[in-house]
Every structure is written in structure tokens, then in C-alpha cells.
Amino acid sequence: VAGLGNYGLRGTRHSVGMAVLDWLARQLAVAEGWRADRRCCADVAMAAAHGLELVLLKPRRFMNLNGLSVASAAEIYNFRPEDIYLVHDDLDKALGKVAIKLGGSARGHNGVQSCISALHSNVSSPQWKGINPS
Question: What CATH number did the domain enclosing 113 receive?
Fold first, then answer.
């Protein structure tokens, strides 16, 4: 699970993906487990939930380069693009509104476009197919 944002600009709407990962790490009792992983230029925490092993990732790059960290982490931790979930802001949604999007275009979001480009993929996770988030 990658929380997209601008690492040095915490507390801004554009870095809400990182704030969500901080919240998730607290919920999963791994908030003290964040460590800098120089191999992928990101802060990483390991967690378990519902029988799954999770890698929580906060890139240490500007938003338009987040994909480099996500792709490096995918290689290091042996993830396929469909194993990766991106958490990011969307100016078309009201603050606090959550949506699940399955693949497709970046819709103008530079962080998402960076991930699509670096992973060479815009696929969606098969485990979300058939789920209606509304």
C-alpha cells in the first residue's frame, strides 16, 4: 500500500496519501515500525491484516517521482502491479470522500501517472473485481 504525496510537505491535501498510511500504521499497531529504506527511497513499515502481509510505503520523493519508489519497492519485495494499492488525493472529490478505482488512466494526477509509467502498467487488483465501493 503506497501513500502518495510530497514527502517534505506533510499536512497538505496533496500529501493525504501519506497521512492515511500513518493512520493505517497506527490502526495496525506498527506506527513505531517505520524505517527508511534507501533501496527504494521510501519509509517502509511491515504489517499484517486479515491474513495478509502488507508493506506500507511512503515515498521520500516529490509527487511526480513517487512511481520510482513504488516500482523499486515492487522489485525489492517481489510485488506485481496488481498487488499494489495507491492512496492519493483527488481534487475532484470532496475532502474526506473515499473512492476505489480499478485501473485506467491517471486522470491528470502526476503521482499516479508516475506509478503507471514506472510500473509499465495501469492494471487493477483482481481481488477488488466485483466490489461496489458505494
Answer: 3.40.50.1470
Across 87-111, average pLDDT: 73
Domain limits at 34?
2-133
Catalytic residue numbers? 14
pLDDT at position 125 over 60 = no
Cα 42 vs. chain centroid, distance in angstroms?
A: 11
pLDDT at 94: 77
Please answer whether residues 43 and 1 qualify as being in contact, where contact means their C-beta atoms are separated by less than 8 angstroms: no
Consecutive H or E run containing 2 = strand 2-3
Statement: residue 132 has pLDDT above 60: no
User: What residues have CB less than 8 Å from 115, skipping those under 6 apart?
Assistant: 2, 4, 66, 67, 70, 71, 84, 86
Number of domains in the chain: 1
Task: Count CB neighbours of 44 within 10 A.
Answer: 19
Residue 44's H or E segment, with its range, is strand 42-49
pLDDT score of 60: 95
Nearest CA to 11 out of 20, 2, 83 is that of: 20
Q: Is the pTM of this model over 0.70?
A: yes
Rounded to a whole number of angstroms, the CA Rg of the chain reads: 14
